[in-house]
Every structure is written in structure tokens, then in C-alpha cells.
């Protein structure tokens, strides 16, 4: 399955209605991170962008961007967090992989960090590493790319959830781009649903 086919499959269960092309400068991103990125992640950024899935998980920006009200979540901070957890909780001894091989691409509301293990020179073969907070194992590796992992997670295909929260409850999945979410907040609406929220916009400029 090509990366575009994977994104289309994901879009069947999670419409990109509130997504947006992130318009990433990939050469700049590659220079910062010292690697190119998996094709499915590049395709995801072009169709969905960075943002929130059901208010339960966030897909991270590879390069920082100024927010409308607050800066959106970025890879650098969560990668540092994942590497610190890897060192502190024995990831190196369990998997014999240096923390520098970890790059975070997402987080969950349960403080799980979704990463790649970048040991393979081909980014399209990077597996997903979950640094779990309330999971059976602190670290687990899944032999899928980011898009396929998300598809399986959103389709409830894992016998045991790889993350520490109830991510999927059988309802409709929604993706909201971070700019859309912040704009809703500024307008006094819930960032995820768009419904009026008396607390939204409370700290707007």
C-alpha cells in the first residue's frame, strides 16, 4: 500500500474536513532533524496537518510555528521528553537502542508519547514506539508506520490498547487542525466540537 493509499484509508474513518495542508518546509525540517521523514507522515501533513484526534491525541509539528493564541505542540519538546523517559525507565537496556534514535510524532491525553525508532536508514521502515504512561509496558514497538498505526488504533484493531486511555469508543472520529481549534477557542467555542463553550476564549488577547 502506498503512503497516499494509507492516508486515504485513514480518511475513510477520520475525515480531513477540518484538516489543512501544513505547508512544511521539508528541506528545513530535514536539516534540523538530520534525516528525511517517512512518506506517510509527509502525506499526512499535506492532508491533515498537525492537530487533534477526538481531543485525545495530538499530531506534532516537525518545526515550530507561532500559534494564534498559544504555540502548537512540536516534535522537539516531546522528543526530549521521550528520550528522558527512555533513559530513566530502562529503554536502552530493554531494546539496545540509543535515545538519539527516538523522534516523537504524537502524544495522547494520557501522556503516552508516540514515536519512531529511527535505527533503520530507510524512514519508511521506521516502526512506531509507544512510550506509555499507564500501559502494561513502559515501551512497546509496533511494526507499522505512523499512518497504519493510527488506522489500527482508530479502528480498534489492537487486542490490547497500545495507549493508556480509551481512545476509541465506537463513535465518529474527528480531526481538527490546530489553527482551527485555536480559532474556535478565540470565538468562544469548544476547540474540538465547535459548540459554544462559556470557558473558551477566556484568555484570548
TrEMBL record:
Listed Gene3D superfamilies: SMI1/KNR4-like (3.40.1580.10)
Region (Disordered): 186-205
InterPro entries noted in UniProt: Knr4/Smi1-like_dom, Knr4/Smi1-like_sf
Pfam families to which the protein is assigned, alphabetical: SMI1_KNR4
Highest taxon in the source lineage: Bacteria
Domain named Knr4/Smi1-like: residues: 25-141
Record SUPFAM superfamilies: SMI1/KNR4-like
UniProt protein name: SMI1/KNR4 family protein
Phylogenetic lineage: Bacteria, Bacillati, Actinomycetota, Actinomycetes, Kitasatosporales
Amino acid at each position: 500500500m502506498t503512503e497516499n493509499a494509507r492516508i486515504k484509508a485513514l480518511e475513510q474513518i477520520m475525515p480531513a474536513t477540518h484538516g489543512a495542508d501544513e505547508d512544511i518546509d521539508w528541506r528545513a525540517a530535514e536539516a534540523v532533524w538530520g534525516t528525511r521523514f517517512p512518506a506517510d507522515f509527509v502525506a499526512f501533513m499535506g492532508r491533515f496537518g498537525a492537530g487533534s484526534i477526538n481531543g485525545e491525541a495530538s499530531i506534532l509539528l516537525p518545526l515550530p510555528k507561532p500559534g494564534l493564541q498559544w504555540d502548537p505542540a512540536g516534535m522537539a519538546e516531546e522528543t526530549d521528553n521521550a528520550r528522558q523517559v527512555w533513559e530513566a525507565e530502562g529503554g536502552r537496556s530493554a531494546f539496545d537502542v540509543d535515545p538519539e534514535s527516538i523522534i516523537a510524532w504524537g502524544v495522547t491525553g494520557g501522556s503516552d508519547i508516540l514515536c519512531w525508532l529511527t535505527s533503520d536508514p530507510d524512514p519508511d521502515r521506521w516502526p512506531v514506539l509507544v512510550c506509555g504512561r499507564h500501559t502494561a509496558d513502559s515501551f512497546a514497538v509496533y511494526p507499522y508506520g505512523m499512518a497504519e498505526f493510527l488506522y489500527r488504533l482508530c479502528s480498534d484493531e489492537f487486542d490490547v490498547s497500545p495507549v493508556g486511555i480509551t481512545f476509541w469508543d465506537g463513535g465518529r472520529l474527528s480531526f481538527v487542525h490546530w489553527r482551527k481549534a485555536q480559532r474556535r477557542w478565540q470565538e468562544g467555542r469548544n476547540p474540538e466540537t465547535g459548540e459554544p463553550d462559556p470557558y473558551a476564549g477566556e484568555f484570548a488577547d
